[in-house]
Design brief:
Elements lengths: L2 E5 L12 H10 L4 E7 L22 H14 L5 E9 L5 H11 L7 E3 L2 E4 L2 E4 L4 H11 L2 H17 L9 E2 L19 H14 L2 E5 L15 H9 L4 E4 L12 H7 L1
């Protein structure tokens, strides 16, 4: 089964306006039998998006239309490709209750979703860790250095994995090494292996999958898959299911670098 399990849509405020059909047709042309649309879920009630344009996620007013369109497309393309309806849900430390309430309401309509960490809390404020290199530098300064920022990130990922978000909590962990996005600019000496091992142990207990996300290869200051091969091999040793994800925000990136994923797994 050739699957792209992490694909965005025209509902993404920071993505392209490529149509669902263009994403789907691209996946079919590239030989995929399954595609999961994982648009950024609306941010939890009471959380203020810290990015300048407030464009990290689809607005809550769009969620019903998003689900309705995908239900129709599932039927339309059922002979050509298996379309999964999903969301990329943010784990935000301090907003577990609101996130669980959202999932209780919309989880029954989802086939396959992702849990990711994009936001970290520093000195009482939230910041988007992958927004740009300037924000990343500020976060490093506020946390007391790059190594401390890495530690906060992995501690937050671990909290997300063990958090109780209810019956419909996503089963797949998104881009576990997103903190590497600016590694060519800010090199850390932090030993992440103990955290990764602990995260994998908790994922195993919960039957979670790992997103093997090739979008890092398309980021100028990263240049590697999230996660890199040594962590992918560690996940394999722990028997954690690996799911390829292009993290495409445009149709042309659907299936991007799938051949590398095949070689590693």
């Amino acid at each position: 089964m050739k699957k792209d399990g992490h694909v965005h849509t025209p509902f993404c405020p920071h993505g392209t306006d490529d149509s669902f059909e263009l994403y789907i047709e691209t996946a079919i042309k590239k030989g995929f039998s399954v595609i999961t649309f994982t648009e950024h879920a609306p941010l939890p009630e009471g959380f203020v998006d810290p990015t300048p344009d407030k464009d990290s996620a689809m607005p809550f007013s769009d969620i019903d239309r998003y689900l309705s369109i995908l239900l129709d497309l599932k039927k339309q393309y059922k002979r050509d490709i298996d379309i999964h309806i999903g969301l990329e849900v943010d784990y935000i430390n301090g907003f577990e209750r609101e996130t669980a309430q959202f999932l209780d309401k919309y989880g029954p309509f989802l086939d396959d979703s992702i849990l990711s960490v994009h936001f970290l809390k520093l000195n009482g404020q939230y910041y988007c860790v992958d927004f740009d290199e300037h924000t990343f530098q500020k976060m490093a300064e506020l946390s007391g250095g790059i190594n401390h920022l890495y530690e906060l990130y992995y501690a937050t990922v671990l909290k997300g994995v063990v958090s109780d978000l209810g019956k419909y909590k996503p089963k797949r962990l998104g881009h576990i090494t997103l903190i590497h996005k600016f590694q060519k600019l800010f090199q850390a000496t932090f030993d992440e292996k103990p955290y990764i091992e602990q995260i994998f142990a908790e994922m195993n207990k919960r039957g979670m999958e790992l997103d093997v996300n090739t979008s890092g290869l398309r980021k100028a200051f990263c240049g590697e898959i999230y996660p890199p091969e040594d962590i992918i091999q560690a996940a394999k040793k722990q028997s954690i299911p690996l799911v390829y994800g292009s993290d495409a925000h445009s149709a042309k990136d659907v299936g991007s670098d799938f051949s590398l994923f095949e070689k590693m797994v």
